[in-house]
Structures are given as C-alpha cells and as structure tokens.
Amino acid sequence: MNGEQFCVDTKSPEYKNPLQYYDVYSKTACRMECKQNHVITICGCRSPNDKGNYTICSLAKWMECYKVESERFDQNGTVQGMCPCPTECEYNEYQARLSTGYFPAKNYDFIFNELGITNIR
Asked: For the chain (length 121 residues), average pLDDT per consecutive 10?
C-alpha cells in the first residue's frame, strides 16, 4: 500500500463483488460500470451496448445527451476520480504484439490462378 492507494483481494473467501453488471471484478469493469451509471444518471437512459434494465436512449437522446456525456466523462479526470475502483491485488498483465501477413497466403496463389481468380490482393 502506498498513500491512499490500496488493492482489493478478489481471491479472498470474504470478497463480495461490488459490481452490478460484471460477474468478475476488474478495475476496467469497475470504471466502465461507473461511467455507465454516471451517464445514465444525467441522461436517464442507457446505450444499447450497456448492461442493465434501464430504458435504451432514443437515437436523438443518444446523440444529444448520452454520447456527449460519455465523451465528457472520458475527458474529465475529476469525475473519473470519483469512481471507487481499486486495482485487484492479483491481476494479469499482457504485452501487446502485432503481426501481419498476406491474405490470402502466397502459397494459395497457384490454386487461385488455377481457378481463374486473379488480382485478389
């Protein structure tokens, strides 16, 4: 522990997940739920992609309120800081990697040529 930071032991037998819409606690899931609840409080409706039973925003309401407030939340560190979302004491972190390849693979050129399929790339 360091200053006001702490972690939540999700492996503890006494642990109870505080999230309403996510079965497994993670800091990311907590922030997504906090954002959803914040925007629903302001707009009175949810996005079709959000979890829960709130009324889904009409397209007009989504454009003029939900989208605007969602973006405002993403840009406002003060509001995000009001989300009580500690990091899990034990979590996995993965390195991102990118690989590329031809599609279709070059070894299929012969087959496509035999079938009369050319200029596929």
From this structure: 67 92 92 95 94 93 95 92 89 84 78 80 62
First CA to last CA distance, the chain: 54
Tell me the two tokens of residue 61: 């309401």
* Alpha helices (runs of H) in the chain, residue ranges in sequence order: 27-43, 59-61, 67-75, 77-81, 109-114
Q: Are 112 and 120 in contact (CB under 8 A)?
A: yes
pLDDT attached to residue 100:
86
Task: Provide DSSP, 92-111.
Answer: -----------SS-GGGHHH
